[in-house]
Amino acid sequence: MDILFTPWRYPYLTAPKSESPSCIFCNAVKSKTSRDTLTLFITDQALVMMNRYPYTNGHLMVAPVAHDALLFESRDDSLRALIRLTAEAQRILSDVYRPDGFNVGMNFGQVAGAGVLDHYHMHIVPRWSGDSNFMTVTARTRIVPEDLDVTYDKLLPHFTNIRKETLSDQ
What we know:
By secondary structure, the protein is α+β, with helices and mostly antiparallel strands. It has seven helices and five strands. It has a single domain, classed as 2-Layer Sandwich (HIT family, subunit A). The termini are far apart.
């Protein structure tokens, strides 16, 4: 039998579960250390952060700063910033990782697969030909070959070069 060690998941699995967990996106906005929250970019309207438990390398999430559960609850400037930042994140991932394609989407509500129920967000998942292998299909396990800190260090300089004013004006 092969054994896969995933020590980075242990803190998540053993952390105390509260009845009303804090919002990862609101925590990212308030945090003084963006690396701790894996946040790559924040404007007044939206933010980009890495997924701590990614499907593939470069799996990003874009969320509004406002704590909204549904799209129709958002202001127009927040929606524009969300889509513009999603496009910028996709461009950066294309430049850095050169994927063959992308999955981009949202889940609303627990039955739809939302992991954060009351703060909607967009997932941007780079995909490569052949990136789904037997591990996902037979063992319900994902292989992500790059450490999160390495991914963060690769992507951060590209997000630093985005002009916040350009995103806010659109």
